[in-house]
Amino acid sequence: MNKKLTKSSFDKSISGVCGGIADYCNLSSLFVRLLFVLFVPANLIIYIILANLIPDSPPSLYKK
Fold first, then answer.
1. pLDDT per residue as tens digits for the range 24-46
2. Choosing a second label site near 13 at 20 to 30 A (CA), which of 3, 6, 28, 29?
3. Residue 64 to residues 7, 9, 40, 57: CA-CA distances in angstroms?
4. Domain boundaries in the chain?
5. How far from the centroid of its chain's Cα atoms is residue 42's Cα?
6. Percentage of the chain exceeding pLDDT 70
7. Residues 6 or more apart whose Cβ sits within 8 Å of residue 14
8. Which residues lie below 8 Å from residue 12, measured CB to CB, with a gap of 6+?
9. What are the beta bridge partners of residue 7?
10. How many angstroms separate the CA atoms of 46 and 25, rounded?
11. What pLDDT score does 26 carry?
């Protein structure tokens, strides 16, 4: 099974980056968001870059 890192379409606050990372790593999205908030200066730049580089998840007929 090949998992691809994509932005989450159902677990998003801003653009779905943290939800996508959490889904890819099988972590809680709250935990990933807290990591981004704790290290704000560096992660703000990283978040903006990831929001532009990570592709959107394909549309699905159902939500998890």
1. 999 999 999 898 888 877 888 88
2. 3
3. 14, 10, 29, 13
4. 17-53
5. 16
6. 91
7. 51
8. 19
9. 56
10. 17
11. 92
